[in-house]
Amino acid sequence: MAVLLAVYIVLVAQRAFQFMGTGEPIGIGIGAALIILPIVGAWALWRELQFGFRTQSLVQQLEREDELPVDELPKRPSGRPVREAADTDFEQYREAVEADDTDWRAWFRLGLAYDASGDRRRARGALNTAIRLERTARRASR
Predict the structure, then answer these.
(1) Is the distance from CB of 84 to CB of 54 less than 8 angstroms?
(2) How far is CA 80 from the centre of its chain?
(3) Is residue 122 a contact partner of residue 130, using CB atoms and an 8 Å limit?
(4) 20 CB neighbour count, 10 Å cutoff
(5) How far does Cα 15 stand from its chain's mean position?
(6) pLDDT, tens digit, for every residue of 40-78?
(7) Are 38 and 13 a contacting pair, CB within 8 Å?
(8) d(CA 8, CA 39)
(9) Nearest alpha-carbon partner for 108 in 125, 86, 87
């Protein structure tokens, strides 16, 4: 998907410059408007890739520390966890964050629990908190 978005960004930018090159006021206006789309698209692509790389880095660190939670939840035929089981499992991760809201590992596990429960928005928020806390902790340890 990232490659397709990159191709789209290039094609739209190319078309925008063609419109602007016509010299016609309407063409210049359309071209200027089309320039915004590749800029927003490139920014969104960069943010998504950055989030993915940072999250993967935390997964690798937890694997090295042997602290990555084991996924033993029952699965639906689609591969997604059964929501009721995930919701039951969720409580322990929420309590861990409440006990120490500065622990990036607890936030990361909470993000995984949110994802298993089907709440992608909160999962992403918890994972972003984990990324921010880990970076702060890493800077403080230097």
Answers:
(1) no
(2) 18
(3) no
(4) 17
(5) 30
(6) 888 988 999 999 999 999 999 999 999 888 777 778 888
(7) yes
(8) 11
(9) 125
Q: Are 36 and 113 in contact (CB under 8 A)?
A: no
Gap between the Cα atoms of 10 and 90, Å rounded: 42
3-state helix/strand/coil string of the chain: CHHHHHHHHHHHHHHHHHHHHCCCHHHHHHHHHHHHHHHHHHHHHHHHHHHHHHHHHHHHHHHHCCCCCCCCCCECCCCCECHHHHHHHHHHHHHHHHHCCCCHHHHHHHHHHHHHCCCHHHHHHHHHHHHHHHHHHHHHCC
Residue 30: what are its φ and ψ, rounded to 5°?
-65, -40
Distance of CA 87 to the CA centre of its chain: 22
pLDDT digits (tens, 9 = 90+) for 11-46: 998 999 999 999 999 999 999 989 888 788 889 889
**Please, are residues 19 and 38 in contact by the beta-carbon 8 Å criterion?**
no
Tokens 């320039």 belong to: 35
